[in-house]
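Researcher: Go.
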Amino acid sequence: MSQMPSREDVLAQDRKDLHGLGYAQELLRSMGGFSNFAISFSIISILTGAVILYNYGLNLAGPGAVGIGWPLVTFFTLMIAATMAELASAYPTAGGLYYWASKLRNKEWGWWTAWLNLGGQVSIVAGINYSAAFFLTATIINPLLGGSFDPTADTLGVQNAIWMTGVLIAIEVVFNVAGTRIVAFMNDLSVWWHIFFVAAIAVALLAVGTQPTNDIGFLFTVAPAGTAADGTPWEQIIPFGIAGAFALSLLQSQWTYTGSLTYARWNLNATVLPTGDVLVTGGVSGDRSNPALAVNATELWNPTSGTWTLMARSASLLRGYHSTSLLLPDGRVIHSGGGAGGGTIDNLNYEIYSPPYLFKGPRPSVTSVTGTAGYGQSLTVETPDGASVARVTLIRFGSVTHAFDEGQRLVPLSFSQGAGGLTVTLPANPVIAPPGPYMLFLVNGNGVPSVGFMLSVLTRWA
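Model: Structure:
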């Protein structure tokens, strides 16, 4: 029987492998296989991912979303994992992503990969810490201090949630500086916590649950249980009936929640901005007829980082049921109404919100737009600021009712720079941009949009 290699033999082989790749051995292997597994397991926590998505799967396809969907998606996910494992075994370096990109393409790709990965990691840590800090402050610290440490209030000019974020980051720094063994222990603990906690929930449901049990065949039943607001079953609404419902339910095991709003609310308005950010205004945290439960905090979602940022507060009015928020051609957002039935107070007035991009410097200007706004056609946009344009977007006119904009969409457009302006290509078909009125925006490198140019995308399909 062959003898297991010693630790010294393993480290010597590590050095030899890295030297073969042009790297010097600088990091000491101190995490075992389980600890490395624990890092990934904790990041993709089942408690914060799959469990809270059961409702989507069961509504769209029934138990089959889990019994059939999960194994199916797991199979394809394992194919991706196998590909990543092959890369990791071929290039076993600590800086895996940027080194892989450098070897597979060139050093320039590796450089960009490294900085984008670093920026993403910093943003993720900051976003998670802020969310955790806000939750801890609101649910534990503030009540313990008799309501004197509200997460949205300021202490010495800094939001209390930010102070707590700093505390969490400081704790993490201490753990990392103290050594990888402590970090490994925390990750190992997280794995066992997940396993035993989930097992305890399952045992408790079996022991004291009051819902009727089913045979094993129930787990593979494809039967949408959800209905629309008017009571119409999902299977009659979703394209391709039950087959379409089942296909959509597969997303349950693939979706990842983005950052959560700071303030939970319903009857809110979400407005897509020319930059791709989403502005949330109004809403109510409970009984929609109670003005005391109005949410006046405005929040801005960034699609790149997936995080929400608190912005200026709106007036202390209940803008929930039947309220309306619309993007104006000048890039501002009109926030109005609220009431008109449902036992709520009628607010026959409006506010206008100016997003941060209006305070970041000069705006690109549009002199004229010529050409046919048909599918696959090109438009000539005359502008003296063509060289500074980084993005061109097409946003459909808003059509809000009951705090929902059925037709809202943002379509990024391809463009090329030329003398005196831009040549902009419209979408190839109406699946991407249905016929109707739109606003065309130029967005410069500072994220500042032009005034929207109104045009109508024709029904003719090129």
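Model: The chain has a mean pLDDT of 81.
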